[in-house]
User: What shape does this take?
Amino acid sequence: MARKSELERTVSFWRLLRGSDRAVFDQAGWTSILSDWARAGAGHLAFEVDGENLTGSIHTVSKIDHLVITKDRDDFPRQRNRRTGELADMEPRTDDWEVIESSFISFLGFGNVFGFLQSANTAASPQAVAKWINASKVLSERVVVEPVVDPNKWQKVRQAGGVTMLEVAGPTTILGDVRDGPLRYLLGLGQMGEFKVEIKLKATRAKGRQQDRRQLHSMAEALFDDVGLDRVDKAKAKIYDDNDLGIRAETINLLKQRFSRKQTVLIRGGPGSRSVSETSAFGAMLAVAEDLREELRQAVGENGRQT
Assistant: This one.
């Protein structure tokens, strides 16, 4: 079987908000910040986020500085002999080297929006990127992150006020560390392999049960805040007009509301490396960003506010 020379990875777009009230804030000087980080070096850009070591480094592609955040991998990847089927571990060069996964971040210059691409699904998430920025103390206030979505498509969900069905599917890691309740044992199995989980929650349309529908509505919005739609395989919500605006009940695919695109990324060949390079990752990201730039600007508004 011929080796692949390219992969498909998803490029998505996120914006930073003020953590205290999830409000927009003035565009930060990311060009200067990235230059300062480059001078500091990776040794000064390593922070612990949620118990994991995340290290930042600056890479210049197309004369633009970009951020790469790497996460130590807790196990070594394996390799297989294509002729014999023999399996073996792949080990770092020496004890000074670590196996890592990379997240690629490119700031677009407006609305505190950045493009995002992962080398693998288990690399640092956009939420982890925001926490890493907080740990760096480069901004005066704590920030949080949410995906940039098409405001026209998401407007129906926000206006309806109620949801009668919420369906979510993805890897067990999307639910985090569940410490209590009946899901604890089942989700614990996710540590023994790569499992998928699918959850469907339903609320009645009966009068007097508006609170249930509003709670599901809040859960749908929380997918943006706490999980990130880039990490799930399915996210659907059936809206209900609890605000009496004449909105028709319908099932909306939440994944189609975000700005994201699968893009071809070249991978390194050679006997010792077959990984996504910084040049390839940021080249793919810049191509998508240029294509969607005006739509992204309109989505966050001239002052950076997502409408």
In short: Residues 278-300 form the longest helix (23 residues).
